[in-house]
Amino acid sequence: MINNNLQNIFVLRNISKPRVWMIKAGINAQTADRLLKNEQRHIKFDDIEKLCLGLNCAPGDLFIWQPDSEADNLPDHPLQAIRSDKMLPDVMSQLNNSSINELKIVSDFLAKLREGK
């Protein structure tokens, strides 16, 4: 089953009030509530665009795949790229437990990535 990955993204973006954030981004309150509870079974392209622009991510980042059965566990299928157990590790706790020197290395690395080097 494909689900949204919003909770993880909000943690990574340090957004403590995701419902308020989504409403400010232009997403209907009822839709925001359903997305946060992972009860929304469909999402408008406009809302996907609002989320991607505000969260600085691509549409594929918004979703994770959790196979329902062995039949869904197809090793060569493109859905493997968004499989829930292949998503980002807990980056915030890793950063919180890093030394100042390690954080500087990460910061320098990110600056080089943004410069395109």
Itemize the secondary structure elements and their pairings:
Elements: E1 2-4, H1 6-12, H2 18-24, H3 29-36, H4 45-55, E2 63-65, H5 91-96, H6 100-115
Antiparallel strand pairs: 1-2
Domain count: 2
Give average pLDDT, whole number.
87
Computed Rg: 16 Å
Strand content bin: 5-15%
CATH topology of the largest domain: 434 Repressor (Amino-terminal Domain)
Report the uncertain regions: none
> Mind telling me which CATH architecture of the largest domain this is?
Orthogonal Bundle
Name the helix and strand elements from N-terminus to C-terminus, one letter apiece.
EHHHHEHH
Shape estimate: globular
According to CATH, what is the class of the largest domain? Answer: Mainly Alpha
Polypeptide structure, described:
- Strands 1-2 form a two-stranded antiparallel sheet.
- By secondary structure, the protein is mainly alpha-helical.
- The longest helix has 16 residues, at 100-115.
- It is built from six helices and two strands, in the order βααααβαα.
- The chain has helices spanning 6-12, 18-24, 29-36, 45-55, 91-96, 100-115, and strands at 2-4, 63-65.
- It folds into two domains: 2-86, 434 Repressor (Amino-terminal Domain), CATH 1.10.260.40; 88-117.
- The protein starts with a strand and ends with a helix.
